[in-house]
Amino acid sequence: MRLLTVLLLLMMSTLLFAIDAPTKTVAAGDTLRLAFVGDIMVHASQISGALTASGDYDFGPSFRQVAPILSAADLAIGNLETVCATSPPTGYPRFNAPVSLLDALADAGFDVLSLANNHSCDQGGAGLEQTLAATAERRLHTIGVDGRQPLVVEVNGAWIWLAAYTYGSNLAAKGDVAPAMLDAERIRADLAAAVADYRIVMLHWGVEYRRRPSAEQVTLADSLLAWGADAIIGSHPHVIQPLRHDERGLVAYSLGNFISAQREGNPGVRWTEDGVILVLTLQKSADGLRLAAVDTLPTWVHRRRRTDGSWRYAILPTSFATDMEKDPLRSHLEQSERDTRQALAQPMAKPCGQEVLDGTKGLPID
Q1: What 3 state SS string does 200-251 have?
Q2: What is the pLDDT of residues 25-59, one digit of tens each?
Q3: Quick check: is 355 in a domain?
Q4: Which of 97, 269, 270, 286 is close enough to 82 for a disulfide, judged by CB 3.0 to 4.6 Å?
């Protein structure tokens, strides 16, 4: 993991922990790279597939092929759509991944995990508390929990501001911790108080399995950009949605599943196997930071049967297809890349409620 200087700005309803505003030490001409991924999910078949002969769980192989990309970034951020509590591991509908998942994420190069999603309370308030403790032990920073954000990180002399919010939680939060809820006026106030060179808002929003954002999402994104957000990174639909960037800022409505056990047959949409690593290159100037380049690196979740009958899941960059002239995986990777490129570039003319799911019949997966 890269060594980061982190200031955690804690704002609570009755108490404000005041920290001096960061002094900008931006050197003109330098660049920094931020990498974002979508939903990090752990279903029951992933848990059984990670079980080792010693009784431990090893998720390292799932991220091995993308670790060089994440580690090369100055800051790598993902949406952790599970908790890692001390209770027995479970998959859907009440996710609880073995804590060794966090070891694999740290080893792969992640720096920040968002806990603002509808599964963050799957094991109650205690489970969320235990997840916060486990991430802290591994020097993984978190956002998206009430009273524990925003996070302001110094990266190569520039200050990056991050906060995350969710449309809701499947289970009500109990105890002293809860995910930060998506409320436009609340986010507006948080952005107004932000002191940083670049402001990133992560939103868990939208409609599952739809490839376009709703009109309400587009309107909210426009408002957040007008209120000072430089980039908006979305999650929750489990499929990739359009990416847009212009002089106002950048909006990635959904980066899809980074890893999950969702396949074409369940929930019946092949796009749940697709993900993308979004890499933003920021260039320093006398005035702060500007977005110099946007790179999208499509990924596909491969699964193979182990000798004991369980499944092993691994994230593969679709660029691997170039070196797979006779490998049967090549067609899967090529199809995934085509689907991802189309989703990222598609127009947003239709509200998601009017969209017809026309890609439910795809390539075989086994």
Answers
A1: EEEEECCCCCCCCCCHHHHHHHHHHHHCCCCEEEEECCCCECCEEEECCEEE
A2: 444 558 999 999 999 999 999 999 999 999 999 99
A3: no
A4: 97
- Show the domain range for 183: 5-10+22-349
Any domain includes 148:
yes
Identify whether the C-beta of residue 34 lies closer than 8 Å to the C-beta of residue 294.
Answer: no
Judge residue 100's burial from the number of C-beta atoms within 10 Å of its C-beta, 0-12 exposed, 13-18 middle, 19 or more buried.
middle
- Per-residue pLDDT tens over the stretch 106-137: 999 999 999 999 999 999 999 999 999 999 99
Q: What's 273-307 look like in SS3? A: HEEEEEEEEEEEECCEEEEEEEEEEEEEEEEEECC
Q: How far apart are CA 149 and CA 121, in angstroms?
A: 17
Amino acid at 183: D
The number of domains in the chain is: 1
Give pTM, 2 decimals.
0.88
Residue 131 belongs to a domain with what CATH number? 3.60.21.10
